[in-house]
Design a protein that fits this description.
Rossmann fold; 426 residues; alpha/beta; Spo0b-associated Gtp-binding Protein, Chain: A; single chain; 6-stranded mixed beta sheet
Length: 426
């Protein structure tokens, strides 16, 4: 299975089943008693994080995820069957955003689940509306439509340490030496086509999760090379280990190239804590190594350690792991302090579900509001009894009185919802 870490999908919950208008006929009832059953509820769409998933490839060709619709009610007050919910497993580390980029859910724990779109409620059948003053109601409701969301699934690996650098800087080799990861390694650019994860035992008590981020090049943040595809995986890391080939003709230029791409990414990543390591130092002339280290130390911030290491000989590996653990622990402490220091959120005034508004628009009146739109969605427009029930609801809510105050004329068009849900004639 190929590695895919970003897909666009449509998530559609099931529609509620319609209620029906039905009457039983027997010798005791000239009209027969109302016995129309309610419709069943539509199924929800539930997203669940699973450590058994490691890519979003399953959604590459399955762009619409739809839960089951509820069944319509039937005679003899039989309730329609509710639709089954659709459970979708995604890798741990998946973010779900709507088409505007708003974060809907962030799946960071195995087994975590969220309802991304809720199924529509089933409509009431006419048996539901029987009362002492209404013995034979002819009204039944439509089922509500299930919620539909245009969403983007984006996988961001959850690793504490990210290995970054130009192609062939030695990231995959280092990861294979310090962890249980077995990345494919060859001697040509862009060997690593997917991010690789490895658990690294720093000492007897501490382990860290490292991610090998595929090689970045100049322009990666703009989509050149492979870097843009994988920069998002750097976002969750606490510390970056920045690898530079010690035999590079210009180690400072290599460093600046990567830093520029981190800064140019949609979320500035250049401020993350780093350790800079010159790689492949085995057999390197000591004076040349010292010169390279001296050159890079002039460029990096004073708080950034600079070391030399060799994955082949093991030189500098223990030092790197100790420095990395210290940086991660410092980052964890800062994160904990920031969470504790956050002020209570300011909660603004929220619209009451019973609130409504009326706007006059070229010979018509547009009525909006959460509650009235809820009832409109369940109304069978074009059916006299259904529309009359909606008018009764609007009267009780005071909407009809306000329409009259605003000078509504007979035969005027009353539009419910914006965008439109249905129309009535006054």
């Amino acid at each position: 299975m190929s590695f895919v870490d970003r897909v666009e999908v449509i998530i559609k919950a099931g529609d509620g089943g319609d209620g029906i208008t039905s009457f039983r006929h027997d010798k005791f009832h000239a009209m027969g008693g109302p016995d129309g059953g309610d419709g069943g509820n539509g199924g929800d769409v539930i997203i669940r994080a699973s450590r058994n998933q490691n890519t979003l490839a399953d959604f590459r060709y399955k762009k619409k995820l739809v839960a089951e619709n509820g069944k319509a009610g039937s005679k003899a007050k039989k309730h329609g069957k509710s639709g089954s919910s659709l459970i979708i497993d995604v890798p741990v580390g998946t973010e779900v955003k709507d088409k505007s980029g708003k974060l809907l859910a962030d799946f960071i724990i195995d087994g975590q689940s969220e309802v991304l779109s809720r199924g529509g409620k089933g409509g009431y059948g006419n048996a539901h509306f029987v009362s002492s003053t209404r013995q034979a109601p002819r009204v039944a409701e439509k089922g509500e439509r299930g919620e539909e969301v245009e969403a983007t699934f984006e996988l961001k690996l959850i690793a504490e340490v990210g290995l970054i650098g130009l192609p062939n800087a030695g990231k995959s080799t280092l990861l294979s030496v310090i962890s249980n990861a077995k990345p494919e390694i060859a001697d040509y650019p862009f060997t690593t086509l997917v991010p690789n994860l490895g658990v690294v035992d720093v000492d007897e008590k501490n382990s860290l999760l490292f991610a090998d981020i595929p090689g970045l090049i100049e322009g990666a943040s703009e989509g050149k090379g492979l870097g843009d595809e994988f920069l998002r995986h750097v976002e969750r890391t606490n510390v970056l280990v920045h690898l530079i080939d010690a035999y590079s003709e210009d180690v400072v230029s290599d460093y600046k190239t990567i830093m520029s791409e981190l800064a140019a990414y949609q979320t500035d990543l250049s401020h993350k804590p780093q350790i800079v390591a010159l790689t492949k130092v085995e057999g390197m002339d000591k004076d040349l190594l010292e010169l390279q280290l001296k050159n890079i130390k002039k460029e990096v911030p004073r708080s950034t350690p600079v070391i030399g290491l060799s994955s082949l000989s093991g030189e500098g590996i223990r030092q790197l792991l100790r420095l990395t653990l210290r940086k991660v622990e410092q980052a964890r402490l800062r994160s904990h302090e920031q969470k504790n220091s956050k002020q209570l959120p300011v909660i603004g005034l929220r619209e009451d579900v019973t609130d409504w508004q009326i706007k006059a628009k070229k010979g018509s009146f547009v009525v909006t509001g959460q509650k009235i739109e809820h009832f409109a969605r369940r109304t069978r427009f074009g059916d006299f009894h259904g529309e009359q029930r909606l008018r009764d609801i609007m009267t009780k809510m005071g909407i009809m009185a306000e329409l009259e105050r605003q000078g509504v004329e007979p035969e005027a068009k009353i539009v419910i919802g914006d965008p439109i849900i249905g129309e009535l004639t006054y």
